[in-house]
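Purpose: get a first structural picture of the assembly so the mutagenesis plan has something to point at.
Setup: two entries, given in the order below. No constraints added.
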Amino acid sequence: MDFDDTPDEAAFRARVRALLEEHAAELVHLDAGEEAADAGEQEQALRRTQRVLADAGLVGVSWAREHGGQSGTLAQQAIVNQELARARVPTLINHIGLGMCGPTVVAHGTPEQHERYLARLLRAEDVWCQLFSEPGSGSDLAALRTTAVRHGDEWVVNGQKVWTTLAHVADHGILLTRTDADRPKHAGLTMFIVDMHAPGVTVRPLKQLGGQSDFNEVFFDDVHVPDSDRLGEPGEGWRVALTTLLNERVAVGGGGNDLGLSVESLAALAAERVPQLSAERQVLARQALGRAAVAALANRYTGYRRYTAISKGGLPGPEASAGKLAGTTAAKLVADAGVRLLGDDAVYGRGPDGDDGRWQRNQAWLPGIAIAGGTNEVLRNIIGERVLGLPPEPREDKTAPFDGVRR
Amino acid sequence: MNFELDDDQRAAAAGARDFFTGSASAADARRALDGGPVTPGRKALADIGFLGITVPEDAGGAGSNVLDLAVVAEQAGAVLAGPSLVTAARAAVLLADHPDLLAALADGSTGYAVLDGAAPSIDAAAADTFLALEDGALVLGSGEVTAGTPMDATRGLASVRLTSRRVLAEGAQALWARARDVALVALAAEDLGAAGRAVQLGVEYAGVRTAFGRQIGSYQAVKHALVDAWVGVEQLRSLVWWAAWAADSAPDELPLAAASAKAFAAETLERAAETCIQVHGGIGFTWEHDAHLYWRRAKVDRFLLGDEAEHLDTVAGLVLAGALSR
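Result (structure tokens, whole complex):
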């Protein structure tokens, strides 16, 4: 047991670090919680950053060479992610494409689709989004009602998607639609690649609880999609979507990284604020700090176990969902301890003395973490049934024709 | 990075599981409450070599490390075995410079207990030789033992007043602190095993008990409670391994890791045991069912070697002093 890189990993890390230093001037660098001034400029800078990294061989490391990647390991990809974080390079703009859409296109796309889309995705020439959730189907994704109807070599799409990260800047999306409502819900779905600039696609930012807009609503009104952009066979959409969801499970919280502000941020705030508190308050603050730190450390070291499994060539299983559950708990403890340390400022959106309001914003992000990437309740079902072997709930909606099920 | 058990440790865990499931049980823990023996007992643990896991080979032990001990302690905890490997782990650190005393620990000829002042101490009820810190000195002696009414008889708790003492080392505070941290790791490892078993009992029952026409484990209210308890167990496992690794390989990290593991263990075992009872319904609240024996272990262990409030405060102090930025 050890926490050191293997000689191979150490050499790889050194190479990554050298590349990041070599290209430092061409990359965006941000501190966590910092916000850019102009959204449009920021988008261009982020696209450029990913292109530079891709050309340096640091994007899609675990993707096969034939798909534009490096044919590296998941462990190498994790090392790149760690080094990007260390260099304060913000999350890559195409993270949805890299984490979810790309692997789905790789697994289910035709050679022509691979050729057409993957290299551009890696270089952020095209930014991708994932068009799954709808107002009427979140956890129950297979109940979605956006339709695609075939007309010769084209499909015509109508409906609405929601909670679509990056839709406002995206060039393409993977779009899950219902193509046969007479079949049971999972069997009547088909996946497409959709051009986000096509006529009939309307993107509206969704203002969320904390006032920010990280997601969008996307409307499809008679949007024409060529059959050559169908991803997988008609009726096979659920199987295609499962590839996406499996990758999402890994991308959201599977790695044991802090969801929200880090426990190190809390430690820094506490070092500044705790000594100013009364003795009685210090006792309480130390309990909250200790509890948050223990939860974050437990989650972090559990992530190291999954990382170990990955570095030995394993694939993350359903137990990776536990990382999001524990990560949510830890993030809430960290956020709450942080907000409490703000004292009176905690009741305002930001402090009066130049404080950037990052703890308040962090707090306002947390309810979303427990919902995004599979609600924590759905994840508990997955763990309960696939890891603990508990029986599933009886369901009538899996076998009856979609149009025949009461909704 | 290689943060998992190796093949030898997995084999050791399997061997320990076989030994403990054949030599101790929750049923024994129930009988111990009525005056029955604590099982497997000191002699059996000595014969299989578990009292000397961290005792050097030239003193009759296995010369293995704290992680190896933690792997075995988890299996001991799963069946509520006694006496505790906490005592063996802690005494082995304290007696490191005394091969003859170590040999008597490993072969079971001396029954040690380590005292924390007047507080009830693990395995003291059946011990004959006591280790304590007095005015900074490590002392060994005999004592007058006062045991209260046991809540978990497998812990052998008693308060001890030393009646004789021999100084083993002056200025032993650092040694004492390390021994206590190693004891925290072993205790957290035993709690890991107990918590894992409590969750397993709950999962098994939820798969067979039916209500309203189906297995109760199919209801989300039951399923999610078990999942949350299981997630806690797996998080605890990571802290136990980290703390054990730190004891062996990164002594600077041990205080943070050990306090974290003990604090998390207290809450994890409590949740697992309470969930186990709740999932069982009425039968889980009976004397005849095993669930309360895990519950008893939880209600006792949470206070041993410092409760979670103490250890969370320790963690906070270390974090404020920069422990996370190393």
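Chain B is about 55% helix and 10% strand.
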